[in-house]
Amino acid sequence: MAERKYAVQRPKGAKWETLSLVDDLGQGKMEFRNAVNLHGAGPVRLIQVDFVSDEALADFDWRLIELHDPRKGDRPKPTVVAGSERAKPKQQPAKGKGAGTAKSRGPASPDEKVPVPVKTYMLAFLFGAVSLAAWALFYRT
């Protein structure tokens, strides 16, 4: 007949490390409370372990009884449409010298016009054209 035990575990990498394995549920709950006191910064779980056969202890089924997860309330709540329910950040008015300049404002809004640096693009194009002409003139193949 299959044997039933209770295990207290905590995560270690991608697997769970067994801290204690006991025969009684009451003793398992006591071990669970002790493990939460010692390892409370991370998740700790109490599971019921039903060994499938007496020969191999590695072959078992398990069921979660209790879980301690300190991050439980910190997770973000899922939204129906991503970002639609998020609060918009409030923009503080700029204070002091230089208020209202482009450097003190936040990111551009979709309807705000951003100047294109046409002179810079023209200079880069002319520099490339002159470089190509100089290469062709002095390093003919």
Structural features, described:
The chain is α+β, with helices and mostly antiparallel strands and 141 residues long. The chain has a domain at 4-72. It is 26% helix and 24% strand. It contains two helices and four strands, in the order E-E-H-E-E-H. Residues 79-86 have low confidence and may be disordered.
Name the features.
141 residues, alpha+beta, 4-stranded antiparallel beta sheet, 2 helices, elongated
Number of strands: 4
- The end-to-end distance, rounded to whole angstroms, is 89 Å
**Overall pLDDT:** 79
Number of helices: 2
From the alpha carbons, calculate the radius of gyration and give it in angstroms: 33 Å
Widest sheet: strand ordering? 2-1-3-4
- As a percent range, the share of helical residues equals 25-40%
Set down the secondary structure blueprint:
Layout: E1 4-12, E2 15-22, H1 25-39, E3 44-51, E4 60-68, H2 118-138
Antiparallel strand pairs: 1-2, 1-3, 3-4
Task: Offer a quick outline of the entry.
By secondary structure, the chain is of the alpha+beta class. The chain is built from two helices and four strands. Helices cover 26% and strands 24% of the residues.
